[in-house]
Amino acid sequence: MTEAKSVLQRPHYVIVAPRYRDTSGGSVFLHTLADELVRIGERAVIWPMRWKKRRSCLPDLLRRMVQTFRDGMMPGTAARLARSSDLSHDAIVVYPEVIAGNPLGARHVVRWLMYPPKLRGTATSFGPDDLYFKASDFSDDVALTGGAQLLHLFSVHPAYSDRGNRDRHGTCYMVRKQAGKPILHDPDRDICLDGLDHATIAGHFNRCARFLCSDEATMYAQFAALCGCLPIVVPGIYRTRAAWAADRPVARYGVAFGVDDTEHAIATRGLLADHLRQMELEGRKTVRDFVARTKAEFGFA
């Protein structure tokens, strides 16, 4: 242990994140992590993704950059926007897997894998001393990480609930990150939900009979089930329901894995809401575990 580390009592968590968008799971996770860290007594700030170290910025440009991103912080967050001084020797920088290399030159680096880094094309740029966390087994690469520790945070958006419509008809669908799969929807007739806001999507989930989802890693399948719509995830990365649900415990109930799995989805729909509430509570514990692990690994008291 170095002398510098021996006198440090608390790290400064610098979370590298894009502007907050409640329709982007990665954005929600990163901003929520910073918020939760502050609420449990840790120091945490949001560093805008793709910003370089700001010491070299012209003052007018810096002010414009700060104002632009301040409007992109999560509403009601307890975390603040980062300053260049936050990149001190006690900073632990948390990069999502989409970030290649170590652009902030941090001494202590955490990689939070929310999607498989091999599919992002960033895995070869990670450092040998980086510390890995995963949002689920789906996003981990054991050959790279040796088995990352779990860190997951989510909550159900209040727009998603069953409004009691029993006259459902039609199909809605999403492609999201996993294009190139067999097309089970009719693009000329069915409703594409990609890029829509939560209120609009929830409205379609409450009108449509089924939801076809090409993305095996999104929460929208669970949101559809909460609205009484039958979600069917199109297989591709995984061959079986058992393998898929083993890597994504959130997928255990209420969602069909392929068109032949609809009986399971219907039979287990009633278990989904309680399961999600339990996972939300477990997520808060993973944040406390994250703090304990990072402090221990990076030599903080």
Total strand segments: 12
Q: Which oligomeric state applies?
A: single chain
Question: Helix-strand pattern, N to C?
Answer: HEHEHEEEHEHEEEHEHEHEHH
Q: Quick one: biggest sheet? A: 7 strands, parallel
Mean pLDDT: 89
List the helices and strands and how they pair.
Blueprint: H1 3-6, E1 12-17, H2 25-39, E2 43-48, H3 59-70, E3 80-81, E4 91-96, E5 108-113, H4 117-120, E6 131-134, H5 142-145, E7 149-150, E8 171-174, E9 191-192, H6 198-207, E10 210-213, H7 220-226, E11 230-233, H8 241-247, E12 256-257, H9 262-268, H10 272-298
Parallel strand pairs: 1-2, 1-4, 2-3, 4-5, 5-6, 6-7, 8-9, 8-10, 10-11, 11-12
Describe this structure in words.
The protein is an alpha/beta fold. The chain has helices at 3-6, 25-39, 59-70, 117-120, 142-145, 198-207, 220-226, 241-247, 262-268, 272-298; strands at 12-17, 43-48, 80-81, 91-96, 108-113, 131-134, 149-150, 171-174, 191-192, 210-213, 230-233, 256-257. The strands form two sheets. It has a seven-stranded parallel beta sheet with strand order 3-2-1-4-5-6-7. A five-stranded parallel beta sheet has the order 9-8-10-11-12.
Structure at a glance:
This protein is α/β, with parallel strands linked by helices and 301 residues long.
Summary keywords:
301 residues; alpha/beta; seven-stranded parallel β-sheet; five-stranded parallel β-sheet; globular; disordered N terminus
